[in-house]
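Aim 2 progress update. The chain analyzed this quarter is reproduced below.
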Amino acid sequence: MGARCDLDMGVPKTQRSGRGLHRYALAVCMAGGFVVFLDVTIVNVALPTIKQHMHASGSLQQWMLSGYTLAFGLMLVPAGRVGDVLGRRRLFVAGLIGFVAASAVCALAPTMAVLVAARIAQGAAGGVLTPQISATIQQLFQGADRARAFGYFASVVSVSSAVGPVAGGALISGFGADLGWRAVFFVNVPIGAVLTPLALRWLPRRGPAPGRRSSLDLPGSLLIGTAVVLVLLPFIQSSWALWRWWLLAAAAAVIGGFVARERRVADPVLDLKLFRNGSYTIGVIAVTLYFAALTPFFFIYTFTLQLGHHYSAVEAGLALTPFALGAAATGPVAGRWAARYGRELVIAGLLLLGAGMLGGIWAVDATHGGGTGWATIAPFVIGGIGGIGGGMFLAPNQSLTLSAVPVSQAGSAGGLYQTGQRLGASTGVAAVVWQFYAGLTQGGSYEEAYRRGGLLIVAVIALALVLAIFDWRRARSRELSRTGVRGRIGTKAEKTPT
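Predicted structure tokens:
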């Protein structure tokens, strides 16, 4: 009973009993994360069917996808802060219930306008839930156990993103075109109904630390939310009208106001001192670049298979599955090795990612549709986006980035980390898909279009690699300096007569 009580406060009484209950809490977090990230990609397969049966215009179809991303990114940092102050379990459950309710409305939507509105609400609820996952991991685990837990979370992100197209295609095939797209949304309802009572039972309660005055900093939350919307909006519009880019100038002004205000606030929504930690800053930038490569890869690869090589939705989804399993197998192992190898593991993962993408470009060129799915298995399993290389990068990077963050700020810091993922996803899709379609409009084949988009992805990975090497060299230099000082002190002490 005592161990259970201590878990509720986030502090296990015994190593044995605490670890057992923590595993249940981790399983609940992983299940919640899987459902949220699954919905980022599962809808892609259903869009053609939704267009046919709901008579959806192009703009409404786009808002089906981008509205989710926009609302998701808007909520991450404020929701992380609220979780730090009011309790992560409370926010996790609220986000889960909201997500399930919005999914039910999507499944029953009578019109496209209702469907889009429910989809935006679904994204907002996912943004409330997600930062509580990394914050709960920070709260419950330490050292190698924390790194391993982040490894599991990295596997969930990779696998759910790749499973989405397969699951969507299977549901549409099984239930038929009219009901299949509704089943894509409704599948979240029974999962959420089972998960909610488990979350209430096993996730830790946590409020403000005793004796510490905490505030929600609502003006700061409003400013950072506005900045996220202004940054994301230009990249999720289909047109390239000039007015869109003025929004980035407005975003810069809002960010400036946010920074000026947060410096004066005693209890800010996001403590700017976090950015004094170079590893945290570089880690956030690196994961932003990773998702700028990850998300558009799924778009251009499935477009090439389905539109260029005439794969069905299920076949295209199955082609993604093998290297998603590679990431699933690698994530927990990489998480366990993060404490020992750390930044070297991140660098190795990025090297494999770049090599895998180059190998995939060659495989698509060489096959011209004749067995492309089979030809890309080897390069993508070993080093492709979501493969072993992705697993080697994602878990150690998250563990190293968040390791120096105080638990009291884990929610807001984790929310910013996730916001970087959303910003990277949106900007990456805008840039890479634009390159992909530019290749097609110039009369090129799907193989040539994929090559253009793929090479831009390789360039993004190379930039992340440069940052990771810089961070590794900086950390190594500090470590050598400390070791050298200790060595000189030790040598002097040995020569000093006693």
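The radius of gyration is 23 Å. The mean pLDDT is 81. These observations will guide the mutagenesis experiments scheduled for the next reporting period.
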